[in-house]
Amino acid sequence: MDMTENLRPSGAHSTDQDPTSYPYASSYGTAYDSAPGGYPPPPAYAPTTGRRKAKRPVALLAAVAIAAGVIGGGTATLVGQLNGQDSAATGSGGAVNGTTVSQSSKGTVAGVAEAVSPAIVEIGAASSAGKSTGSGVVITEDGEIVTNNHVVSGAQQIQVTLSTGKTYTADVVGTDPDKDLALIKLQGASGLKTATLGDSSKVKVGEEVVAIGSPEGLTGTVTSGIVSALDRDVTVAKDDSGSSGQGQGRQGGGQEWPFEFGGQQFNGDTGEETTTYKALQTDASLNPGNSGGALINMDGEIIGINSAMYAPSSSAAGSGSSAGSVGLGFAIPVNTLKADLDTLRAGNGS
């Protein structure tokens, strides 16, 4: 005989004790009239049937359900925090957490726009040279906003408009002309939606991106495209002095975004004081007023601060007005911003 053969009936289980060794277990569910010694007999030993087997899984399922309820509560809290329902703190080293795209909307332009638009603002800067319009990214709930240096350079008054239409007066905290970055702070703001800063070192050519800003004062304009190239050496003006093309973001009369690339100047003269940085190139439509706004990946993370664009001259376009985007836009990588945040907060610049 095969010693591995199971001699027990189908469905039976091995036990540590033989049920027949109990003198009281004559049959399952039988009542007993008496027991030796005058004590009630112990309960009958129940054969291992399907009914008994079901008890442990039921108990296990109940325990799992309770554990899931506990964990689920923590998960809901975490999701709430990621979606901006809880205040996002900004620590040293440039880490910024804020709104993210909901799981059901990930990978869609609409989902990115819905999640991030509340953290993108319009910036109006007034100086002796005139007025300019740019954009900015909210990074703390009390109103720290990142933008381009050229948007606020020389500004005597700064007004910021949120996506809700509410306006604030802002002060310049710190600027870094060499990186074309600036940090401003709203007066008396609290509870603002904040953006999440991503990791530009992980960006790849061909990735889909979304740009949000205020081109020509059209607050909250959303465009989309791809990352066209990495590490473009783009040269822009440091301040608002010099050429007639300065004030990159000013509306009207040929006020474009002058920049240099490959030894050539575009959109006018950049002036004598310039700075060069490595930029992300995108074909997402950018126009004057997008400067300082956000370039965003499909997870809703900021990967760049839009800073320059190419626009054909009005004569080349056959029009009396300044031409718009032709799919050559540039953004400062967000890792450059994160490395510079502490410097900007200290009111210093390179």
Spell out the key features of this protein.
disordered N terminus; 350 residues; alpha+beta
Concise summary:
This protein is of the alpha+beta class. The protein contains six helices and 15 strands.
Rg calculated over all Cα atoms: 33 Å
Q: Please bin the fraction of helical residues.
A: 10-25%
Termini separation:
89 Å
User: What oligomeric state best describes the polypeptide chains here?
Assistant: single chain
Net shape: globular
Structural class: alpha+beta
Number of strands: 15
Biggest sheet statistics: 6 strands, antiparallel, barrel
pLDDT < 50 stretches: 1-36, 60-93, 241-254, 314-321
Strand order of the largest sheet: 1-2-3-6-5-4
- The number of helices is 6
Overall mean confidence score, pLDDT: 74
| Approximate strand percentage | 25-35%
Give the topology string: H per helix, E per strand. Answer: HHHEEEHEEEEEEEEEEEHEH
